[in-house]
Design brief:
By secondary structure, the chain is of the alpha/beta class. The chain folds into 2 domains: 5-198, HUPs (Rossmann fold); 211-313, GMP Synthetase, Chain A, domain 3, CATH 3.30.300. The chain is built from 10 helices and 12 strands. The strands form 3 sheets. The chain has a 5-stranded parallel β-sheet with strand order 3-2-1-4-5, sandwiched between helices. Strands 6, 7, 8, 9 and 12 form a 5-stranded mixed β-sheet that branches. The structure holds xanthosine-5'-monophosphate. The site of xanthosine-5'-monophosphate has 15 residues, from loops.
Length: 326
């Protein structure tokens, strides 16, 4: 078992041998893989590692803080934060086509990351040092899939931190190459990472940008963040986090329907709940969540989130539906 103390130590030793006294950078996405990869490398080489977090403003409630505060507190990692919310909002303004959104988010992410890289390279140069390595949170299934590429690759252009351009100036450090997801979570827990990070469900690189059907604005993001936070809190409170693979919450920003509130008519947007069960995200079934849980989520979202007057449940399996709506 990879996670028993000795093997963990061996792995840390391996990383130390690979990196030596060079400097290394690692992008953090807020997800499990990059967090665990960074924590391992931090254990191995300490402050030779600088992590980069590009905050694109498309994360869910509390997630940026999890990286900036909780991850740093748990690991002592040196973190460079690029606050790029405005940049992504500007680049996405008026865009509602899903693939165009994905491409814009991917492109801006790479640019923002490269700018952060340059700043760190300059800082290192001022100390007469060079950045030699880039950490990637590649897992075993990614290794197996690469080359052929997964079948779904042509359906949606995927973006994540692991997919950064292979910057030839860096050598790669891939400490998770032999591991499956559950093993990565176990290693993360052993390294003392917060449960909110280690237990995090899959979340797409383009984030909430592809959970707004319609164009992306600050107001819509804030609205969706509120609805999503309610749905997640209720799912957790019901003890069903482990039953559900993931539960995208989607804002149909281009749709409005009539409702009633008190004595007045409302004309608001629907929120879609998309809870699915799955083994690997290649196929999925819609989760049969208890009615009382669905009722609580619906009541809370329609009462607490201004502009939303309807909550609907997606009862489509994959295929033919994909998990995400865009
Ligand atoms: P779909 O919607 O294709 O999603 O059924 C399958 C799984 O992939 C996640 N997903 C992404 N993950 N970058 C990612 O890292 C992406 O661009 C991306 N798009 C979808 C999705 O959340 C689901 O787990």
């Amino acid at each position: 078992n990879w996670t028993t103390g000795n093997i963990l130590e061996e792995q840390i030793e391996r990383i130390r041998n690979q990196i030596g006294d060079a400097r290394v950078i690692c992008g953090l996405s807020g997800g499990v893989d990059s967090a665990v990869a960074a924590a391992l490398v931090q254990r191995a080489v300490g402050d030779q590692l600088t992590c980069v977090f590009v905050d694109h403003g498309l994360l869910r409630e509390g997630e940026a803080e999890q990286v900036e505060r909780d991850f740093v507190a748990a690991t002592g990692v040196k973190l460079y934060i690029a606050n790029e919310q405005e940049r992504f909002l500007t680049a996405l303004a008026g865009v509602s086509d899903p693939e165009t959104k994905r491409k814009i988010i991917g492109r801006e992410f790479i640019r923002a990351f490269e700018e952060a890289e340059l700043a760190i390279i300059a800082e290192a140069a001022a100390h007469g040092e060079k950045i030699k390595f880039l950490v990637q949170g590649t897992l075993y299934p990614d290794v197996v899939e690469s080359g052929g590429g997964e079948g779904a690759a042509n359906i949606k252009s995927h973006h994540n931190v692991g997919g950064l351009p292979e910057d030839l100036q860096f050598e790669l450090v891939e400490p998770l190459r032999a591991l499956f997801k559950d093993e990565v979570r176990a290693v993360g827990a052993q390294l003392g990472l917060p449960q909110e990070i280690v237990g995090r469900q899959p979340f797409p690189g383009p984030g909430l940008g592809i959970r707004i059907v319609g164009d992306v604005t600050k107001e819509r993001l804030d609205l969706l963040r509120k609805a999503d936070a309610i749905a997640r809190a209720e799912l957790t409170a019901a003890g069903l986090d482990n039953e559900v693979w993931q539960m995208p919450v989607v804002l149909l920003a281009d749709v409005r329907s009539v409702g009633v509130m008190g004595d007045g008519r409302t004309y608001g947007h629907p929120i879609v709940l998309r809870p699915v069960s799955s083994e690997d995200a290649m196929t999925a079934d819609w989760s049969r969540l208890p009615y009382d849980l669905l009722a609580r989520i619906s009541n809370r979202i329609t009462n607490e989130v201004d502009g939303v007057n309807r909550v609907v449940l997606d009862v489509t399996s994959k295929p033919p539906g994909t998990i995400e709506w865009e």
